[in-house]
Amino acid sequence: MKIGIKDIEYIATLSRIELSDTEKEMYVHQIDDILSYIEKLNKLNTEKVKPVTHTVNINNVFREDRLETSTPLEVVLLNAPSKMGAFFKVPKVIE
Amino acid sequence: MEYEVVIGLETHAELATVTKLFCGCSTKFGAEPNTQVCPVCLGMPGVLPVMNKKAFEYALKAAVALSCEINNFTNFDRKSYYYPDLPKNYQISQNYHNLGINGYMDIIVNGSVKKIHIHNVHLEEEAGKLIHSEDSGANYSLVDFNRAGVPLLEIVSSPDMRNVNEVDSYMQTLRKILLYTEISDCKMQEGSLRFEASISLRKKGSDKLGNRVEIKNLNSMKSVIKAIEYEAARQSELLDGGKAIDRETRLWDEVNGKSARMRSKEEAQDYRYFPEPDLLPVLIDEKWLSTIKSSIPELPLEKKQRYIESFKLSDYDAGVLTEEKVLINLFEECVKIMDRPKAFCNWITNDLLREVKDKKLDINDLKIKPKQLASLVEIIEKGTISSTIAKEVFSEMIQTGKEPQKIIEEKGMAQISDEGLIESVVDKVIANNPNVIEDYKKGKKNALAFLVGQVMKETKGKANPKIVNELLSKKIVDIN
To answer: What is the model's pLDDT at position B193?
Structure first.
């Protein structure tokens, strides 16, 4: 086992989601399977391989600082699960 | 126990681009909520960010101006955290390959230079704005995403500051650098320049750092200073009482002048940074870097030093004059027209700033032109108007942008230098004030000043004071 219930609970907390005990048990196995599979890569000798972050060899892609039309408010709010006036409405956050 | 206060500052500055970092939405402040957004800055599935070249170059300019080492390879990373002001649940920032590292900035404290190290300078995107209901019973918050995606520069200092004077100088100098390089408008009231402080205490002489506390919600430079003073006192009291300092983040409450715990470091967020797959790396070659380097103007400390040396201005005057870009431009243009730096400096640092303050004028919206201030100084030197009248003329000039000559003509303010005319007034004043003449004879020297004042009053301040003085002195002696 690469990970345990504690790791699942930690990730769930960071992601602000609540999991039942059955779900936690299920995810431990699923994520553990995934990690074990990925682990196979560690068998490769990568000593002389430089780390890459992108698979395409393209750099310096920019746009000019030119104004474009924004999306109309009524369209913006179409996908909002909850709204109030021109705002998105979310459960109260205190900080 | 005597403690040393160790302070580091994190600075966020919104960059002065027209559009956001990854899309063409406007960055303009104060628009109606959620009207400057699009699928990219709302984090809709499937959209791709494309980097704003100007924003990148501004950030690069800042890193160079702060003497950072510039990596020729830089990349962007995802910083994951879940908060409703962040539409994508991650912020595109930099973590592994910051734009600039190991820089420094010189500050001046009590006349001597201190080097403050800059840990790193990097570019990231702004979050949206949360609005909390004033009704404490309300169970919701509102979100405006206009600010989400605005290019944001983060400048992290090393913990090199030891007192609030150094912090103050650091903030002022950094603000000036960002203004001079025209990277940010630095409007603290609009949130385009913000500071966060980390403070820890250690025994004097010790080189081990204590647990640090971060302070957020500092809305002005004054709040930063007050919050640091409060925090240093709080920690010193805890340590004296034998208690430990918790690593925590505290929120400053400006109204009550104190801070309260926001979250402790144990519940610290785990940002799980990883390279942003949607943005390609940026390679910075020598040619690009040298173009950026050559675009950096004279920076605050050099400029101030030059003002002191070449224009013989006082340290204080040079400081005030180099505070705002408009003042610098006005001063430098005036000096080009006429070699009277001291006079221009006085008009700007005294009269102009007082008018701005008293009449609540917007310093960026003054009507006066350099040429006009130069002609005013010339008119005074010629003796056409007295310095008292000149102040009145100046007050009108900065508000209307009228030529000084025109104001003087319209209001009949020109100085009276006609000796015959002044003599008649002098005679009248002498005749009306026999007691004062007596006083003067008895040795009360300031009696003369009173008489000069009377003549000026009679002539509505227009008599040439030099002639008035000469005539009065001569006439009084004659009476003797």
So the answer is: 97
Angstrom CA distances, B231 to B157, B243, B259, B369, stand at: 19, 15, 8, 46
pLDDT attached to residue B438: 83
Are the beta carbons of B92 and B124 closer than 8 angstroms? yes
Mean pLDDT by 10 residues, chain B (480 residues): 94 98 97 97 95 98 97 94 91 96 95 95 97 83 97 98 97 95 94 97 90 94 97 95 92 94 69 94 96 95 93 93 91 95 95 92 88 92 81 90 88 77 87 85 82 86 83 78
Nearest to B139 among A10, A79, A91 (CB): A91
CB contact under 8 A, A53 and B75: yes
Closest CB to B53 among A59, A64, A85? A64
Are B351 and B320 in contact, with CB atoms under 8 Å apart? no
A29/A23 Cα distance (integer angstroms) = 10
* A92 to B139: CB separation less than 8 angstroms, yes or no: yes
CA B75 to the chain's CA centroid: 32
Interface test with B, best of A62, A66, A84 (most B CBs within 10 A): A62
B192 phi/psi in degrees, rounded to 5: -85, -5
For residue B58, give the chain A residue with the closest CA: A65
H or E element in which residue B173 lies: helix B164-180
Cβ contact, residue pair B82, A16, below 8 Å? yes
Q: Is A65's CB within 8 Å of B17's CB?
A: yes
B150 touches chain A (CB under 8 A): no
Residues of A in contact with B131 (CB under 8 A): 87
- CATH for the stretch B419-479: 1.10.10.410
Residue A17 in contact with partner chain B when CB distance is under 8 A: no
What is the C-alpha to C-alpha distance for residues B232 and B230, in angstroms, rounded to an integer? 6
Inter-chain touch A93–B23, beta carbons under 8 Å: no
Could you tell me whether strands B274-275 and B77-80 are parallel, antiparallel, or unpaired per DSSP bridges?
antiparallel
Q: How far is CA B348 from CA B15, B223, B319, B320, B381, in A?
A: 29, 28, 12, 9, 17
Pairing of the two strands B213-218 and B248-253: parallel
With contact defined as beta carbons under 8 Å apart, do B452 and B469 qualify?
yes
Cβ count near B12 (within 10 Å): 17
The domain locations on chain B are 3-289, 298-411, 419-479
Sign of CA dihedral B79, B82, B83, B89: positive
Which pLDDT belongs to residue B473?
83
Closest-CA distance, B293 to chain A, in angstroms, reads: 19
Instruction: Quote the ipTM score.
Output: 0.90
Chain A residues whose beta carbon lies within 8 Å of the beta carbon of residue B33: 85-87
- DSSP label at B429? H
